[in-house]
Amino acid sequence: MALEITQFLLSAQSPDASVRNEAETTLSQFRDQNLPGFLLSLSVELANDGKPTESRRLAGIILKNSLDAKDAARKDQLVQQWVAIDISFKSQIKHSLLTTLGSSVREASHTAAQVVAKIASIEVPRKEWPELVGLLLANMTQPDRPASLKQATLETLGYVCEEISNEDLVQDEVNAILTAVVQGMNVSEQNSEVRLAATSALYNALDFARTNFDNEMERNYIMKVICDTALAKETEIRQAAFECLVSIASTYYEVLEPYMPRIFELTSNAVKGDEEAVALQAVEFWSSICDEELEIQDYEVPESGDSSAPHSHFIQKALPTLVPMLLETLLKQDEEQDQEDGIWNLAMAGGTCLGLVARTVGDAIVPLVMPFVEINISNTDWRSREAATYAFGSILEGPSIEKLSPMVNAGLEFLLNAMHDENSHVKDTTAWTLSRIFELLHSPATGFSVITPGNLQRILGVLLESIKDAPHVAEKVCGAIYFLAQGYEDAGPSSSLLTPYLPDILNSLIITAERTDGSDSKLRSSAYETLNEIISSDDREKQGDLQASLCGVLQVLIQKLSTADETKPIILQVADQIMLLFLNVFACRSSTVHEEAMLAIGALAYATGPEFGKYMQEFYKYLEMGCQNFEEYQVCAISVGVVGDICRALDDKVLPYCDGIMTLLLKDLSSGELHRSVKPPIFSCFGDIALAIGEHFEKYISYALPMMQSASEVCAQMDNSDEEMMDYGNQLRRSIFEAYSGILQGFKNSKPDLMLPHAPHLLQFLELVAKDKQRDESVTKAAVAVLGDLADALGSNIKVLVKNSSFCTEFLGECLQSDDDQLKETATWTQGMIGRAFSVCG
Fold first, then answer.
1. How far apart are CA 487 and CA 508, in angstroms?
2. What is the pTM of this model?
3. Are strands 448-449 and 442-443 parallel, antiparallel or unpaired?
4. How far apart are CA 164 and CA 250, in angstroms?
5. What mean pLDDT, rounded, does the chain reach?
6. Which of 24, 171, 747, 775 is the most buried (most CB within 10 A)?
7. How far is the C-alpha of 402 from the C-alpha of 766, rounded, in Å?
8. What is the pLDDT of residues 157-204, one digit of tens each?
9. Are 697 and 743 in contact (CB under 8 A)?
10. CA–CA dist 497, 454 (Å, integer)
11. If we measure between CA atoms, which residue out of 387, 404, 386 comes closest to residue 395?
């Protein structure tokens, strides 16, 4: 039963420390001695409209914190505690929470919605709260229910969809939720709070709506309601509707074609005249379309241009009207945008989108942007000059060098003069544009550079003068010097062009690093990073050897300390500092250093587990570079191995990075330039990714499986008389089996039937390998394991596949007679899986 805890909850918020501590102790004792009673008492407190707001607020906070935590280990502990509570207590708690959704106190119903979703995240995947969706939908469908209850219910549905995965609901439940949500969004809904809650709920439910979006009639209705909602009179509702469109752009790109004229009209009007919060989402829609089309272009097979993903070329089609719309946004700057970190405004969003458009369409953007640049670059209004410079800098990646070089060569002197502009915003953007030019169009090693012996002195003179400017300008100048110096690396005779200027450059950077007028450490960090780039290039080999050795030492220490419970906390305490050091090491151009750093990062990922996720955003660019390093193929192979380490550490939290990673891996496999030794690790990595993300690997099946099948056919034709080829063949076969194992295990609990069409090919490959008596023992282990995984995943479906395959019995018999205990154990398990599959068939 619930106990009266109001006074304790109020006292726990007392300004008097002794009163507060005594109340907190009492509450803690209650929780430790009787958790079910404690949680029930909190839920009753939260449900009672007669209780003080302060006690109800704290009751809700404690309830949420008793069900969820950021730390994975703590969260798992809380889940297990909830699962262990007697069902009668859980039923009472859930009833109280559902009752609270009808509270007239908004804060209480809002908190209850969050707590219901937390419980749903535990129970719905376990099929322990099957009536939840029905109970919530009853609030929406029964007559005379107050608007406040509908609002709280829609909020709850949104939170629940956010917490669970789309496999946790049956399609009838999804249909009912979408019906309720879309009904709540409709223009006929008079209550704006209900309409906002419904629109927010749809955003969270979109991932569940795949079947509905495949149905043209349902899709048309959903899109009509969203587009209508984007015209609501309330700003928050319009913003939420555009957020839905942004999500749809990436989730359902392939069905957008019929709706694009209306969406263009909506986004265009929002950008031109709506509140900034709405306009930002309108621009984000087009950025998302660019992301999708860039990804499709990356997936295209270089030889044929084919891609199994549909490419609608929305950006190309919209270009003549989209680009002018984006250029107009560049004129909507904030006065303080360069001084403050974290500012995101319409001008910045427009420039970012313009850069994505340039990468998507290439040369076609140049004639649409350059007239804007030419008209505004000399305007008396600083906003026009800054916008023109920003537009110029934004389109430098994407178009060809042939298209860019004339305009960059013509504009370079103008930009150098603009570093003396009276307005600091113009100088800031000009310095950024110069750094972009030096990063993208200054590569003497490849035979092209906008910097020549004739203009180098002039460029450096301007930069070393401008580095004394305001901190935010000086920071961008450091970036320009960094890329200027980096371009001369490995440039043969051209490298010496910078030598006469080094004393002045180094002196300026040291003075800049010691400046005290910056509000934060960004300028100092940028100056030191540039110093490191310039100094390192002089003695790079010696420094590289030392850095490689230190990375190796750290890797061994991480591995040793993280294997024992008593020493693992040491690694966790210093993980942030270690990772920062590793990231800095990538500034070194030595492949040996990159190899050792990657290996050490793999060890750190294993040691830190899910916590490694916080490093991924910064580390991903280096992982991407490593996976594309065909020339130094050992770095590429190790980078691919680190992807596997990260998948094992993060599990499904690696999902946001998987599109990019799979694109890189598939391009690697398609390349004729990449050393063959990298290909086996890539196949193994497919298995690691599939195991981590489970059913989400489905989107890659049509790309990965043909590659694996093609590689297995290569194995069949290999010349085993050559010892080196035989070793490679063994590596390749083992990795293909490991890939199949990971994919089968990943799909086992959700979509095993996806692998049915591919099973005959796998069995054929297994038979081929089983007949090869020269195979390596590691291949045998991988083969017998994947046979077990096939039976485990496909269950009764395997009977018809295996019954004509006499090799299975012979192969298993051979493995069961092995002297290797591990092989024997795996074979026994596989035999059991096949036996179970046959017994299920009857």
1. 20
2. 0.64
3. antiparallel
4. 20
5. 89
6. 747
7. 51
8. 999 998 988 888 889 999 999 999 999 998 888 899 999 999 999 999
9. yes
10. 11
11. 404
- For residue 471, the one-letter residue type is P
| Helix boundaries (H) for 362-400 | 366-376, 382-394
805 in Cβ contact with 761 (< 8 Å): no
CA distance 767 to 772: 9
Q: What's the DSSP call for residue 102?
A: T
| Euclidean distance between CA atoms 234 and 213, whole angstroms | 27
Pick from 136, 139, 40: which is nearest to 96 by CA?
40
What's the chain's length in residues?
842
Q: CA 106, CA 110: separation in Å to the nearest integer?
A: 6
Q: What would the two tokens of residue 129 be?
A: 């709260």
Q: What is residue 522's three-state secondary structure?
A: helix
pLDDT per residue over 20-38, tens digit each? 999 999 999 999 999 999 9
Between CA 365 and CA 372, with CA 367 as vertex, the angle to 5 degrees is 100
**What residue has token string 């640049």?**
373
For residue 442, what are the β-bridge partners?
449
Residue type, 379: N
Q: Cα separation of 430 and 427, whole Å? A: 5
- The rounded distance, in Å, linking the Cα atoms of 329 and 316 is 20
Q: Which residue has the tokens 């998507």?
A: 360
How does pLDDT run across 291-323, given as a tens digit for each residue? 999 999 887 655 555 555 688 899 999 999 999
The Cα–Cα gap between 777 and 766 comes to 14
* Structure token pair of residue 827: 């074979």
d(CA 600, CA 420): 46
Residue whose C-alpha is closest to residue 175's, from 206, 207, 209: 209
CB distance 229 to 196 below 8 Å: no
H or E segment at 437? helix 424-440
Separation between Cα atoms, residue 514 and residue 517, nearest integer Å: 9
Question: Using CA atoms, how far apart are residues 64 and 82, in angstroms rounded to an integer?
Answer: 12
